[in-house]
Amino acid sequence: MTAADQFDDALSPLDPQQFVNDVLALLEIAKRELERDDKAARAALTKASSILRAEVKRRSRAKGAEPGALAAWQIARVHAFIDENLHRTIRANDLSAVAQRSTSHFARSFKRAFGEPPHAYVMRRRLERACHLMISSSASLNEIALSVGLSDQTHLSRLFRRAFGQSPSSWRRGLDSRREPI
What we know:
The protein is mainly alpha-helical. Helices cover 69% and strands 0% of the residues. The protein has 9 helices and no strands. The longest helix is centred in the N-terminal third of the chain and has 25 residues.
């Protein structure tokens, strides 16, 4: 267990000061670990980024939710469900059941809340997770593709090239070359 693992994956603490303290602590861990343990530093930065992203989303929803939009608890449950199930097929009716809405109402509400349709969001999250795995593990691209719910390496490569303009292997090689000592 790394030092970053001590922080839970909750959306954000209720106490604003605790939120600031948690993010600052994670950044300090990352700073300290940067030279000693690259993976621990990355884990701390990923966790801090997640906390900040969740807090920004929470605050933007608190400023005024539209009628018919997903409630904060629904957004949190759907987001968690997607992240926990990226390795398998996620259907719109699965997500609507999590949010306790009809499939058609859910699809409209989801797009309002997340800014994109459910399928596009799930595919984006899969690519984000694949990027994280390419950075943090030495698993093959085929293993990574399967672990994020894609059918094979070709599927990953096609989506990755469409999203980022290059193949996952060349993207990964670029990361490795930047890490090489001079």
